[in-house]
Design goal:
This protein has 171 residues and is α/β, with parallel strands linked by helices. Helix content is 44%, strand content 18%. Strands 3-2-4-5-1-6 form a six-stranded mixed beta sheet, sandwiched between helices.
């Protein structure tokens, strides 16, 4: 819950770039989607293998597989959005990518886009770190783990048409 509140705060105060340190890409996506619901924004995601797409739609936009193409496309969008960038940190030694990233973040006041860099280890160049907020996802609390176990067991039971039963002590 704290991670959700922290991410929502960073988005609400107008951070144009947030680095989220985690290996849990799905969890970062979930958090971004929940923040988007609360703030009335669209969520997009980019990876080098898929390109840029709106979450839930799945069809990538043409010309967005390479990082600079994805960033240039983001700059053309006028609806406020949260943009999960999963592999971008691998290109932060490329001057074109860094410059384009800086230019997109400068437009934050105009379009209210928030770019979210997601990675297990994010070493940002100094000029990018200076404009970036940082969030390191915490480990799930006990009650969150219990909820995840219940959700997974319910999904497994539904898929396999079997009932899963476990006591709280076992969980």
């Amino acid at each position: 819950m704290k991670d959700l509140q922290d991410l929502e705060l960073l988005v609400s105060i107008g951070s144009p770039l947030i680095s989220v340190q985690t290996i849990e890409e799905n969890r970062a996506s979930e958090l971004a989607e929940r923040v988007a619901e609360r703030t009335g924004r669209q969520v997009y995601q980019w990876s080098i293998t898929q390109g840029l797409s709106k979450v839930g739609v799945g069809t990538p936009y043409a010309g967005t597989q390479k990082p600079d193409g994805a960033l240039r496309y983001i700059a053309t969008l006028t609806t406020p959005g949260l943009f999960l960038l999963f592999d971008l940190h691998a290109w932060l030694d490329d001057a074109m990518v860094v410059r384009t990233l800086r230019e997109v973040t400068k437009q934050h006041g105009k379009h209210a886009h928030t770019l979210i860099l997601v990675g297990a280890s994010l070493e940002l160049p100094d000029d990018i770190e200076a404009i970036s907020a940082s969030l390191k996802l915490s480990l799930p609390a006990r009650h969150e783990l219990v909820e995840m176990i219940r959700e997974e067991s319910a999904a497994w039971g539904q898929k396999n048409q079997k009932r899963v039963k476990a006591s709280t002590a076992v969980i």
